[in-house]
Amino acid sequence: xxxxxxxxxxFRPHSVLLPLFFxxxxxxxxxxxxxxxxxxxxxxxxxxxxxxxRLRKLVKHASETVPYYREVxxxxxxxxxxxxxxxxxxxxxxxxxxDIVDRPLSAFLSSSxxxxxxVRKTSGTTGHPVTVLVDRDAYAWSIAARYRCEQWxxxxxGDRQARLWGRALDQKGRRLESLRDLTLGxxxxxxxxxxxxSSLRRQVQGLLACSPDYVYAYPSLVLALSEHLKEDSxxxxxxxxxxxxxxxxxxxxxxxxxxxxxxDCPIVDEYGCSEIDILAFDCERGQKHIVAENVLLEVVKGxxxxxxxxxxxxxxxRLMPLIxxxxxxxxxIAPNPCECGRGLPVLSSICGRTSDQVIMTPDGKRVxxxxxxxxxxxxxxxxxxxxQFKAVQERLDRxxxxxxxxxxxxxRKTDLLVARDxxxxxxxxxxxxxxxxxRIDLFPGKFSCFEAHPSLAGAWRGHTSQEEFTxxxxxxxxxx
Length: 480
Ligand SMILES: [Zn+2]
Fold this sequence. Notes:
α7 links the parallel β3 and β4. The chain has helices spanning 14-24, 29-39, 44-65, 67-76, 97-101, 136-151, 171-184, 197-210, 219-231, 253-263, 370-381, 408-426, 456-460, and strands spanning 118-121, 131-134, 161-165, 186-190, 214-217, 243-246, 267-273, 277-282, 288-290, 295-300, 308-314, 325-333, 346-353, 358-360, 366-368, 388-395, 398-404, 431-436, 450-452. It folds into 2 domains: 4-350, 3-Layer(aba) Sandwich (Rossmann fold); 358-477, 2-Layer Sandwich (GMP Synthetase, Chain A, domain 3). It is α/β, with parallel strands linked by helices. The protein is built from 13 helices and 19 strands. The structure holds zinc ion (ZN). Zinc ion is lined by residues 283, 285, 287, 289, 338, 340, 342.
C-alpha cells in the first residue's frame, strides 16, 4: 500500500474557498483545528482536565438556562459545584431519545438565545426521530474535528470527496444536496442510483471522471461499487484515492480487507451519530480514537449482554445541550493508549443498537448478532471468499442467511460450517437456512448485516408472542 503523501497532489480550489467561507460565516474552524492538532498529543490527564472544565461550564449553563435540565437537576439536587471530577458525571441523569421526543423542542433550548446555525436530524430508523439544533461554535468544533481526523490519512482541507450516500431525497432535498456539494467541493452519489448493474457501472464511470481525493461512504455502498470496479477489470486502485472512510454501518473485517485490496489505500472507520456528528475515528494504526475534546463518551455497564451502553455528552453545543445522551449502541473503551502516541482514548469495540443486534430465540435465549462477525472472520481465516452477507430472522424459530460466495467449492464449505459451527450457538429450536444468491440488493438507507422482524424490539422486551412474527412478508429479506 502506498503512503498517503505519495498520492496525487493537485491544486483544489476548495483549499482556498473553504477557509474563506469559514471566515465569511464567522466559523472558527481553522482556530479550533490548530488547537485540536496540538491537544491530540496531550497526556490523558490533561485531556481529562479539559473535559472536566467544559463539562462543568455546560452543566452550569444548562441548569440555569435550559428548562428540561433546570427541572431534572433540581429534582435530583445536583448543581455544577457537585461535578468535581469526571467521575461525578455519573450523578447526572441519563437522557434518552424518548425524553427528547416526548417533550416540545423548546424544553431543551437555552433561553440565553442565539440562532441555530445547523439542524441535525436522525433518520428515525429507531422509531424515535430526533431533531437537534446546533450553535455556530459547536458546529465549527465538529468540522475542525473531522479535518483533524482526516489529516491522519493525508486528506487536506478542500480535497475532493466522493460521497456514497443512502438517503432518499425529494426534489428540494436533492437541490440542497447539490448546493452543499458545490460549496464543499464534493460529489454525492445516492444509493437509489446504485440499484442495478448498469447504473452502478455509470456511477463508477462518473466517479472516475470526477477524480476524487477520497471516498466517504456507507460500507454497503462502497462494497457494491468496488465489486464493479473489480468486475470491470479496472487497474488496481483506478480511483487512486488517499483513503476510503466508512461510516454509519458496521464495517466487518472481511469487508475491510476486500476494500483495501480494490482501493489499495487505508480503509478508515468512523463512528458518529446524527445528533452530535463525529464521535470517534480510526488513526493510522486502525485504532478508533474518541474525539475527547468535543465529547465525553462513557460506556455504562448494566445490561445482561456483557457490554456497556454508549452515553455521550456534547461538550460544545450550548444552544441545545445533550448531556449523558444514550445512543443505544454498545461499546468498550480500551484500557491502554494507542501506540500512535495520541492521548485520545480508544474505543476498542462498537456495535449497533442494542435492540437491533439481539437475536431472540423461541426458548427465550438472547444471542448477540456479533456471532455472525465471528463466524465470517473464521471463514475468512480459512480462505473462504465471501462478498456479501445478510442474516434475516423471519420468525422466532427461523433465520435465513443470504450469502454471496463466488466460488462453488467455498459455497459447499460454507454450508457445512454453518451447520456445524453457527447453528449450535442459536439452539436446536432455530432453523438456520443458507441461501446462496448472486447479490444482495441495497435499499436507500442504512444496510445492516442482521435484520429481524420489525416487532423484534417488542420481543426483546418480552412482550411479543411467536404468532406475531408469522405474517411478516419474507420478500423484505433483501433477496431479489
Ligand atoms: Zn492511534
